[in-house]
Design a protein that fits this description.
This is Bifunctional protein FolD. GO terms for molecular function: methenyltetrahydrofolate cyclohydrolase activity; methylenetetrahydrofolate dehydrogenase (NADP+) activity. Belongs to the tetrahydrofolate dehydrogenase/cyclohydrolase family. Keywords: Amino-acid biosynthesis, Histidine biosynthesis, Hydrolase, Methionine biosynthesis, Multifunctional enzyme, NADP, One-carbon metabolism, Oxidoreductase, Purine biosynthesis. This protein starts with a strand and ends with a helix. The protein has about 290 residues and is of the alpha/beta class. The chain has ten helices and eleven strands. The longest helix is centred in the C-terminal third of the chain and has 24 residues, at about 270-290. The chain has helices at about 10-30, 45-60, 75-90, 105-115, 125-135, 140-155, 170-180, 195-200, 250-255, 270-290, and strands spanning about 5, 35-40, 65-70, 95, 160-165, 185-190, 205-210, 225-230, 235, 245, 260. The strands form three sheets. The protein has a six-stranded parallel β-sheet with strand order 1-11-8-7-5-6. Strands 3-2-4 form a three-stranded parallel β-sheet, with helices on both faces. Strands 9-10 form a two-stranded antiparallel sheet. The structure holds 5,10-Methenyltetrahydrofolate. 5,10-Methenyltetrahydrofolate binds near residues 96, 141, 266 and 271. 5,10-Methenyltetrahydrofolate binds near residues 265 and 273.
Length: about 290
């Protein structure tokens, strides 16, 4: 058997097209485009690449992009002051501070300083709490993308066993919450879990979000399962190569022979993250406009 490949690039393009339509309607109605501010501190090359593609795709979706680049030695207070200015700027609907921040900057206070109504990463505790409580809020982009891809093959998740490996605030916890909201029976696994392989073999839906290249082996997968690989790991460059290969948390070549459907890396969850960042920006813009009316 060969698993169906879930095409994150194509799905992301669909989501972005829907966002572009709603963005045009927003602009016609409110006389301004939805706006996303991206803050990049320092010059980590991987972050530069992500930010560049966020800026390009934001504009392609008919939204305003505001880029703020700060030197790596920026003081914590100066970063907080920028966040407060963006909070107060009515042209800015969404604020994304690219993570990780260079040492010794502390992301915690920065996330707390972002107006929850503009927190398009969904990382502010108010939004995390809203997700758990079933209240409207902003949901982290990668979990939404992972869920969207899972739904393309499992539109109904009622009673399915879902196992999430990884318990980060950014991915593991919110993705588990979304699966629970979809009536799956959810188990969260992590580095202390006993018999992780055996647990994974119970999963109809397996979400890997640990950041360890190829950790999930083929024999951990229940035949026919839906495998969502959230890991984006860059391997060390092979001889003569400038960049290493991107691989997921799942040993793809093994898994593809067992799973029913699987997301590739690259071309899986990664592109969805940016598509839902744009969707969150639009949602934030629409809600803020409603409140201001
Ligand atoms: N505040 C914040 N929010 C984030 O959402 C955030 C962040 N900080 N810091 C870094 C991570 C990483 N991230 C990715 C987004 C898209 C791809 C993506 O599109 N990847 C392509 C491949 C890109 C390539 O070839 O390098 C793919 O998987 O097909 C990957 C990774 C968002 N992040």
């Amino acid at each position: 058997m060969q698993a169906k490949l879930i095409d994150g690039k194509a799905e992301a393009a669909n989501v972005r097209a829907a966002v572009a339509e709603r963005a045009a309607a927003f602009s016609a109605r409110h006389g301004r485009k939805p706006g996303l501010a991206v803050v990049l501190v320092g010059n980590d090359p991987a972050s530069e690449v992500y930010v560049a593609s966020k800026v390009r795709l934001t504009r392609e979706a008919g939204m305003e992009s505001f880029e703020h680049r700060l030197p790596a030695d920026t003081a914590q207070d100066d970063l907080l002051a920028l966040v407060r200015r963006l909070n107060a700027d009515d042209a800015v609907d969404g604020i994304l501070v690219q993570l990780p921040l260079p040492a010794p900057l502390d992301a915690g206070p920065v996330i707390l300083a972002i107006d929850p109504a503009k927190d398009v990463d969904g990382l502010h505790p108010e939004n995390a709490g809203r997700l758990v409580a079933g209240l409207p809020g902003l949901v982290p982009c990668t979990p939404m993308g992972a869920m969207h891809l899972a739904r393309t093959v499992r539109p109904r998740m009622d009673g399915l066993n879902a196992v999430v490996i990884g318990r980060s605030n950014l991915v593991g916890k919110p993705v588990a919450q979304l699966l629970l909201n979809a009536n799956a029976t959810v188990t969260m696994a992590h580095s202390r879990t006993q018999d992780l392989a055996g647990l994974c073999r119970t999963a109809d839906i397996l979400v890997a979000a640990v950041g360890r290249p190829g950790m999930v082996r083929g024999d951990w997968i229940k035949p026919g399962a839906t495998v969502i690989d959230v890991g984006i790991n860059r391997l060390p460059p092979a001889d003569g190569q400038a960049k290493g290969r991107l691989v997921g948390d799942v040993a793809f070549d093994e898994a593809v022979a067992v799973a029913g459907a699987i997301t590739p890396v690259p071309g899986g969850v990664g592109p969805m993250t940016i598509a839902f960042l744009l969707q969150n920006t639009l949602t934030a813009a629409e809600r803020r406009a409603d409140v201001m009316r």
